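Hi,

I'm pasting everything inline rather than attaching a file, because the server keeps stripping attachments. The sequence lines come first, and each chain or strand is labelled.
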Amino acid sequence: GENVEQHPSTLSVQEGDSAVIKCTYSDSASNYFPWYKQELGKRPQLIIDIRSNVGEKKDQRIAVTLNKTAKHFSLHITETQPEDSAVYFCAASHGSSNTGKLIFGQGTTLQVKP
Amino acid sequence: KAGVTQTPRYLIKTRGQQVTLSCSPISGHRSVSWYQQTPGQGLQFLFEYFSETQRNKGNFPGRFSGRQFSNSRSEMNVSTLELGDSALYLCASSLGGGREAFFGQGTRLTVV
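And the predicted assembly:
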């Protein structure tokens, strides 16, 4: 069935360092991969997304890479700041079938130490 | 533009009771999905509605059901509540596949 594995489950970095979170998906028909950030007590919010016709996408300090062959995609945060501390979720979806259904990874708790 | 609104924000129910949660999507969004969030299981997909039709369903028992109205507002219902149903229930609306999904603040359900 559809599954998304996310690693690591927790990540602690020093302010200014980079953070990398990795996800693997099982359904080869998946073609839309969003990343959500959820701060404590708040709703998940989209920070970046990528579609299967693109290998990499960057938005300021955040980048996402996609390897369709290996069914891997990763989130890269550079120059981390304390406000980056949150839970990050990757997800996969069948964008071409027009479904809004998202299969989420288990989440990564990122702690950025000042 | 108003965001996704979920009501109520908090609920406490007793085992065996039933509960109905409501989600008002962003204006113009016809896709509404529901997710259960627990510390141990993360975000799990419950079901998706599009134009009043259930388009996808996750692996949850039949006690979990939902519907969508002609104005795209959606409700989910859980019957015969169990302790394990305690969770944060999130809904998300979008224009459809491959588009950004916007989440509501969630309904925190506690079953005692």
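Chain B has a mean pLDDT of 94.

If the labels don't parse on your end, tell me and I'll reformat.
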